[in-house]
Amino acid sequence: MDGYQRRTEKKKENIRNAAFELFKVYGVEKVSIAEIAKKANVSPVTIYNYFGNKDELFKEVLSEYMNNELDQYMELLHSDLPFPKKLEKMVFNKTEAAKTLSSDFLKGITDPSLQEVIEDFANNKAIPLMMEMIEQGKAEGYVNPYLSTNAILIYIHTFSEMTQRPELFSNTHMNELLDLSNLFFYGLLGQPVKDS
């Protein structure tokens, strides 16, 4: 990669970072290209040249966000921590991540135009990682080994679909959403495992 390409990639990264910072606080609808350009220290034309429009920029930002989250979970899954601790950290990380995202941001991801991006990510990345976690839990004796893979997939799909309902993303329901996250994980275990 030559100097020009490095500068271009750096500009794109700055734009994505600026957009994410604004989107996560104000939501996609309330943020303009001009505001993103100002925060990224580029011209609005540069954003249009690189990303086409705000919706395409949001798709890239959302994809990058989901991939970064997945990388953290993958690192955790492959760590030497005991399985119950991994689950606790996954729930804690999900809780902390959710606290940084406004309800306006979360409502934005329910837009039908993004469903293909989200479904592709779920089917090709998130669900395989989840299945790896379940298999690890079964192998270590923490997840019921008699649960079929299909039943677990239905359980994951049901949970995922429910958490995409816009009414769950208002500030008044965030605690319930986080409780569902705990229920999702600890429902597999039966109850949280306590350290002795």
TrEMBL record:
Keyword annotations: DNA-binding, Repressor
Gene Ontology molecular function, alphabetical: DNA binding
Residues annotated to bind DNA: 32-51
Pfam families tied to this protein: TetR_N
Keyword Transmembrane helix: no
HTH tetR-type domain boundaries: 9-69
Protein name: HTH tetR-type domain-containing protein
Naturally occurring in which organism (per UniProt): Heyndrickxia oleronia
